[in-house]
Amino acid sequence: MSNASRYTEVHASPSGPGDSRPTAADIVRDEGMTGKLVGKVFLITGCSAGIGIETARALLPTGADLYLTARDMQKGEKVVQDILASSSDSHGKLELLHLELDSLQSVRECANSFLKKSTTLNVLINNAGITMLVKFRSYHYVPCSALLTLPAMHLHRLHINTGVMATPEGQTKDGFETQFGTNHLGHFLLFELLKKTLLASVTSAFCSRVISLSSSGHKSSPILFDDLNLKKGGYTPFKAYGQSKTANIYLANELTLLRDTAQEWYGQWLLHAITKQQLGSTFKEIVYLNVIV
Questions:
Q1: 20 is catalytic
Q2: Helix (H) or strand (E) segment spanning residue 207
Q3: Does the annotation mark 214 as catalytic?
Q4: 270: how many CB neighbours lie within 10 A of its CB?
Q5: For residues 25 and 54, what is the distance between their CA atoms, to the nearest angstrom?
Q6: Least buried of 22, 55, 149, 260, by fewest C-beta within 10 Å?
Q7: Quick one: pLDDT at residue 8?
Q8: Residue 46 region, left (φ>0) first, then alpha (ψ -120 to 50), else beta?
């Protein structure tokens, strides 16, 4: 039975949260990934609530070292203790970093703090942000965990998962529209500051990876390059949210295509939702992915 087909039957008639569909933790266990990522380093943004928490909880049994970010450190510390208390398996490090994505200075400080703690970064997950109106449960995260099970894909990861959704009009500390600045610009800068470490962490057996979490809400708006702050055409919450989520997709897509200074491809694979598209026959550099949930 293939990795995907084993779950086909339970997805035939979904009945909402708590039904028989697999959670992220189920997939990690089913695929025999427990303890298989010892020594690998993940950085996951937005781990004080929502998907970020479940991402960390599911990845902890793999043995990878996890660096989580939070805006509210007190809340983040409670999350760390809760995850550790709920884990019966041996695991790697679980450390918390302060990050406010609406401040580019905070992004720089977070990157510096991480680099003082680790010279390796295998996976960046861009996930963080302020989420309103929507509550996430762990089963929504199944596509991200499923990435662990893709054949012949060894993972050094950075998860970009935080985001702001449908907020009132406002500005970041640097003067950008709140949702675009937080959901895209903050994560873009974080990637740029950690890119060299991602590249340096690549081996012939284990490629680095960036995961950019987007949303079907991207359909609400393209990127308005001549009106990024939505001053000309007027502000609406979901237009701003849609623009930021489209930018998340552009980030993953463009990183798949761009070359580094050595003229080597950064990545040969692109993933939308749980559809894997092969763009090359071998892994040489970072694997860039876009996940739409």
A1: no
A2: strand 207-214
A3: yes
A4: 19
A5: 8
A6: 260
A7: 85
A8: left
In this prediction, residues 153-165 reach a mean pLDDT of: 45
Active-site position among 40, 195, 239, 245: 245
| Chain centroid to CA 61 | 18
Active-site entry in 67, 139, 241, 266: 241
Q: State pLDDT tens for residues 207-230.
A: 888 888 887 778 888 998 998 989
* Amino acid of residue 45: T
| AA identity, residue 138 | S
**For residue 110, what are the contacts with CB-CB under 8 A and spacing of at least 6?**
69, 97, 98, 99, 190
Catalytic residue among 103, 138, 201, 214: 214
Strand pairing class (269-272; 275-278):
antiparallel
Is 281 one of the catalytic residues?
no
Query: Are 70 and 48 spatial neighbours (Cβ–Cβ below 8 Å)?
Result: yes
C-alpha dihedral, 292 to 181 to 211 to 34, nearest 10°: -100
Count Cα neighbours of 56 within 13 Å in the Cβ-side half-sphere: 34
Tokens of 284: 């040489």
How far is it, in rounded angstroms, from Cα 183 to Cα 163?
A: 5
Q: Is 46 exposed, middle or buried (0-12, 13-18, 19+ CB in 10 A)?
A: buried
Residue 130 φ/ψ, nearest 5 degrees: -95, 120
Nearest C-alpha neighbor of 134 from the set 279, 45, 238, 222:
238
Would you state the pLDDT for residue 50? 86
CA angle 86, 87, 88 (to 5 degrees): 120
